[in-house]
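In this supplementary section we document a worked example of the pipeline. Step one takes a protein sequence of length 420 as its only input; no multiple sequence alignment statistics are reported here. Step two produces a three-dimensional model, which step three serialises into structure tokens for compact storage. The input and output of this example are shown verbatim.
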Amino acid sequence: MNKEELRNIKQRYNIVGNCDALNHVLDVAIQVAPTDLSVLIVGESGVGKEIIPRLIHDNSPRRREKYFAINCGSIPEGTIDSELFGHVKGSFTGAINDSPGYFGAANKGTLFLDEVGELPLATQTRLLRVLEKGEYIPVGATEVRKTDVRIVAATNVNIRQAISNGRFREDLYYRLNGVPLQMPPLRDRGEDIVLLFRLFAMQMAEKYRMEKVVLNDEAKQMLLKYKWPGNVRQLKNITEQISILSTERNITPEILSKFIPQDTESTQLATIHRDNEHSFENEREILYKILFELRGNVNDMRREMSQLKKQLDDVQHHTTTIPAAQTSPLPAPIQSVPANIPPITTNPTPMNITEDAVAEEYVEPEKEPESLNLGEMGRQMLEKALERNNGNRKKAAQELGISDRTLYRRLKQYGLDQDK
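The serialised model returned by step three reads:
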């Protein structure tokens, strides 16, 4: 694009500035306009990203079709799917009629998704399907609908960091980032700051029929040294304040200092952080962090409950060999007692051999006493258990309520290990 075309574009869209970074953005936007490639505009808040999508649409084959600019951060999460993709009558409370949504209404046209980094993850999945296949399903509908929409998105957040934090889909980022455009911050535009001040001062003078404010050389240098965290929007606000509140029309550094924040913290960019420092940009990021921590706690609790359930099942399984008259309604927490401390006996009546063997086997399953025997079960019941389980020793041991080691010892004692 030559200088004449560039100047015409700036006049048409009231763009003020001559810095190389701004001229490059305008040049790329004009080149990509005739295509259907998705465009992602990245830049700090207040740099004027909303001008580029309009420029792209007006210079594209879709210029006679509809153009919608949507602020994704201003739509409540509960209704954003309905706003974008439409809904059918009765799909939710208040849905008294069918709605095509923005993707249906903008068919053949252009959609500008501002603050696309604020989209919920579920909505990001729907958007990805539209970008990949050109189809979507309205809320409450069962049939797929087609749409042909050019997407231009913009964001002021660090998408790479959002992907790392799990707040933005990486595949959606690459779909949107067909052609990236980086809008320069105001602090990097040099003399454009003074030109913009003159424009805003002239607009105020014409609107309110007053004398235009003018900066002297020292005040101009003060403007150029300021960091402008609010970018063009902040500069416009300060110019309007000076135009209305200042009694002097020739602005000096002393007058200008009354309108520019002097707090050093206020001049630091909100998007700049140390490499090892994590900063919460908004309440949504805090909620995501809490949810991730809660999910980890729930997983830990689930594992502990699974282990506890397994331990209780083992206790119930072993106590089935104890006669019903000697079992208590609630088994004592045997595992909490150290293995080297003998259990406290509250009943002076001696336990039979079978009960004593089972209790000792549960407390210390690795060291079973040599005096353990099957009592009245005997050889005949052992043979029947093996017969019922088709010779499966493990299942026979489970049926008899003893360990595999005990079963093998009894088989050897009765001479059955040679038969099986």
